[in-house]
Amino acid sequence: MSAPNHPEQQRRSRLVVLAGPTAVGKGTVAAAVRDSHPDVWISVSATTRAPRPGEVDGVHYHFVSDDEFDRMVADDDLLEWAVVHKAARYGTPRGPVEQALRAGRPSMLEIDLQGARQVRRTMPDALFVFLKPPSWDELVRRLVGRGTETEEERERRLVTAREELAAEPEFDVTIVNHEVRAAADDLVTLMMLRTASTSWSSTAPSAPDRSTPTTPSSARACWSTSVRSWRPTCRRSRSRSRCARSTRTS
Ligand code: 5GP
């Protein structure tokens, strides 16, 4: 894959879309990125769900009424939106994303699988990162442990989580969230490389796999937080590249 020349493509290439199943830690990882790298712009979504204790309007979400969300959809104010966990609507306000990209900032959306698929259609040059739990049991433990959902809501989220985990091959890169700090650091590394260039195999940091010959047009790097190495082993399958699964070795 060669670096894009068109300015619009360069702007788009700075967008990272982070998705993954419920309770995998997307929000926590995004917050860790924000804390350590204020230069990274992270979208604040609109949602019709009620705020949880401690959540601040305009910081964690824009908490809006159903009517207001309807208006945003009708006015095409949302880059993508979806009903998540069959419970509430969530959407990415379009204006701030376009502004951040125009300003050349490395930018990130933290959204669900349905939203990621929509962005894939409108901004195919974005980098799609799948955040994955170390195991199914660990995912359940995290969901139960955070204690923010009722039993019924937890069950519903776990059904969605199974579907979302199955979608991992649709993504460009997988990060296994063993530990928040490491996952956030890996995400930032990816974003900075993405900002510098979209030529993944030629911009990866010194790592054993760099010497592995890759065809730029047919390969993207895979990043594993567990082995902490680049794995340029992706194969392009139809229109998407498929990345080798991260294998836990530590
Ligand atoms: P929560 O209610 O736990 O904050 O979020 C539920 C789910 O909604 C998470 O998977 C989160 O990634 C997703 N989500 C948050 N904001 C957006 C958004 O703007 N668009 C979409 N499609 N999903 C979102």
Protein architecture, described:
The protein has 250 residues and is an alpha/beta fold. The protein has a domain at 7-43 and 106-232: P-loop containing nucleotide triphosphate hydrolases (Rossmann fold, 3-Layer(aba) Sandwich), CATH 3.40.50.300. The protein is built from nine helices and 13 strands. It has helices spanning 7-12, 26-36, 66-74, 94-102, 113-122, 136-146, 151-166, 180-196, 200-203, and strands at residues 15-19, 41-42, 46-47, 62-63, 78-84, 88-93, 107-110, 127-132, 173-176, 223-224, 229-230, 235-237, 240-242. A five-stranded parallel beta sheet has the order 2-7-1-8-9, sandwiched between helices. The chain has a four-stranded mixed beta sheet with strand order 4-3-6-5. A two-stranded antiparallel ribbon has the order 10-11. A hairpin with a 3-residue loop joins strand 5 (78-84) and strand 6. Helix 2 (26-36) crosses helix 8 (180-196). It is globular and about 45 Å long. The two termini are 31 Å apart. Residues 1-12, 198-221 and 223-250 have low confidence and may be disordered. Guanosine-5'-monophosphate binds at residues 22, 26, 45, 49, 80, 82, 84, 90-92, 110-112, 114-115.
Please specify the SSE layout and strand pairing.
Elements: H1 7-12, E1 15-19, H2 26-36, E2 41-42, E3 46-47, E4 62-63, H3 66-74, E5 78-84, E6 88-93, H4 94-102, E7 107-110, H5 113-122, E8 127-132, H6 136-146, H7 151-166, E9 173-176, H8 180-196, H9 200-203, E10 223-224, E11 229-230, E12 235-237, E13 240-242
Parallel strand pairs: 1-7, 1-8, 2-7, 3-4, 8-9
Antiparallel strand pairs: 3-6, 5-6, 10-11, 12-13
The protein binds guanosine-5'-monophosphate (5GP).
